[in-house]
Every structure is written in C-alpha cells, then in structure tokens.
Amino acid sequence: MTIILxxxxxxxxxxxxxxxxxxxxxxxxxxxxxxxxxxEAYWNRVEVTPEAYFVILTGCLGVLVAAVVARGxxxxxxxxxxxxxxxxxIKKIADIPDRGWYALCLFVVIAAALNIWEMVSMxxxxxxxxxxxxxIAQWARGNxxxxxxxxxxxxxxxxxxxxxxxxxxxxxxxxxxxxxxxKIKCKKRRRTDYYSVICLLVLSSAxxxxxxxxxxxxxxxxxxxxxxFAFYIIDSKNRNKTSLQFVKICAIALLITLPLFYxxxxxxxxxxxVPLLDYISFYLxxxxxxLSYALEHPPVADSMAFPGERTFTQLFALINKIGFDIxxxxxxxxxxxxxxxxxxIYTCFYRYYYDxxxxxxxxxxxxxxxxxxxxxxxxxxxxxxxxxxxxxxVCSYAADAVREEFIFSRxxxxxxxxxxxxxxxxxxxxxxxxxxxxFQLTRKKDRPHSC
Length: 451
Fold this sequence. Notes:
This protein has a two-stranded parallel ribbon with strand order 1-2. The chain contains 17 helices and 4 strands. The longest helix has 34 residues, at 348-381. It is mainly α.
C-alpha cells in the first residue's frame, strides 16, 4: 500500500507518463509485492522485517525525489510535447530502407555461425560429442566463458572477436525493437514493411535463446513496450488516456511473455520442476522476501571487505584487470533458500544498504533513477539512432530494479564500452543505408509515411 501511495504522487509528477522510469520502478515493486503474496501458497514463508520495510521505503522515496528533480533537470522535464525533432527522428527510423535491416540480419547470421563453430570446436576438443546443437549449447554455457567478462582462467573461452560479435547481436535486437515501434507509430500500411525488422528481432532472440539468454528476450519485450510508449506519448493530447491504454498492452505482454518464459526453461536445458504460478511468483516476486531474509540472516559469503564492494562490483573488477588487486567478490551474491527456490536477487536496494546504509539507499536510488530518466528522454527525443539503441538498452533494466541493481554494479564495467561500440556500429549501418537509399525513396510505394 505504501508503494502505491508513493506512486500516486510520482505519476502526476511525471505528467502522467505511466512507463517513465520512476513510475515503472514503483509499479514493478508493487507488482512484486502482489506476486510475493501469491507466493505464500508456494515458497514464501518470510515476514517482511521493519528493517527491510524501511530500506524499501527509503529507496522508493529516493525514486520520488529523482522524479521531481528530473522534471526540472531535463529539457521540458517529463512534458514530452510534440517537438519537431522528436517526430522527425521517428519518421527517419520508420523510413530506413529494408536493406539496412536485412544487412543486420546477415551480420547476425554470420556472427552466430562463428560463435556456434567455436562452440562445437571446443566441445569436441573437450571430449563432448553430440549432434544436437541445443545439447552442445547447454554444455557450452557451463564450460565456456567469454573474454568480455571476468571468467576463470581454467575454463575455455570464446575468442575476443566472437565475444564482441555476441554483444553486437544482442544490441541488434534493441535496434529491431526501435524500428518496429517506429513503423507501428507511423502506421506503415504494408505487411512487407515489417518483415525486415521482425526478421532481425527473431534472429537476435533465437541466438540469445541458444546462449541461454531468456532474460535478454524478456528485456526485448520490456524495451518494446517502453519505446512504443515513448513514441506515442510524445504527441498525445491526453497523456493519462494514452497511459491507461498502455495498461492493456502491458497486461497482454505479461500474459504472453511469462508463460513462454516458463516453458522456455527446457530450451535452455533446465527442468520445469515447479508449477507455472510458483515459478513466476518467485522469479518476479522473490526480491522483497529475499531482501528481508538476507538482512535478518546475512549470507555467509557476504562479508564486507570495504565499502562499495557490492555497489561497484564490476567497476572494481575492471580496475583489477589493469594491474590492481582489489579484493572484490564476484557480481552474483550468495544464495539463500526460500522454500523450494534458491535466491540471490535482493532488489537494487540491497547493494546500496549493504555498502552505505540508509543514506546510500536514498542517494543511489535517486541517482540511478535519474540515469534511467535521462535514457528515457533520449529514447523519446534524441535524433541519433546509436544513442536511442544504447539508451533503450539501459532503460529496459528499470523494470528489473525489483530484482537486481544495474546502473552502478553492472553498467559501470567493460560492458559499457562494448555497449557503446555496438550501438555505434548498428546505428552507423542503418544510417548509412538511409543516406544512400538513392532512388528507392523516389518511388511512390517507398515514399516516407507520415507519423
């Protein structure tokens, strides 16, 4: 109830932008609370302690303050009026020639083929023989690391090229989501107008699934809803009505995505050992009970070496790669047991509280929300395709704050540089084909549509 009351204050502050980051974060915490309540019939036996309650309250108040600051800090705050720049950018994306999207499709196929070839070669060298690509992929997920992350020196690694191409494939999915949303917003009438971006999205999703990345596909869904909302809210005459319409879209997305997410367990080599509602209620609702349990019974592995080690885990790991020896643990926290589930998702607030107490929860919750707000503004208004791709990638993780922290503990790492490079490469390819479309846009059937 407290979270809903805070959201009721935040919603008008965002000028009725339902899926703006402050509103989205609070709604996800409210939704997670509902799922945790449902989970009491399955796995949840944890009473939320006063300490956990005040940690969550402090974090949510930090989100509220960030919403107030963002309204005045960014151009037009959350008053996303129909600016010429914003609408023009959407039109340009919608009118990117199909050959640009198909060029990215070809890139994904070639990059995936290289990755699969390395996967098969290393599995055979290790004595694992199988003709089933899903079995090989399952073996690879447990035995092969990537050079872009801090893996063990005792494990096999993909080449730097293959690892970089994998990152770019992931971002191709975000580009496809933006292209699809722009075409929907501009009401492209021919079905063939959508084939190229849908093809790219399917290929990126299929590769992510092969790599075990169900989470990546879930983020594509979240990203699609966010960017579509941003494109529609920009010239909405009744923002509250538009937001209410997106409640239906979000409900449909959840009803479709969550069961698929559950049944995809077998595709990534995992067993469906619990019922659907049990699994979903834990996956999205396990953060708050996990936080409460971890504060009352601190995991043995979580012994603080120095302040900031949890909040800036990947940043310290990156510093260690250039010659330092900071005693930092791995990104993933220690596991605790909740019923028949093991959990190490303690909400984004746990890392802040673990390192800096209530002051840290308030401060870093506000700062991370401001970063999400800046990215939301860039998705909606910035005319640069690379900026939109990168911003959407970051913004999609706002919905994950109820499970884990992203901005300080994951984004501040070597992955940040690769994310920027991937966005620049993909955006560059699309913009090049747009500029060099030549005669294609002179034919009547290829003329730009009005948004």
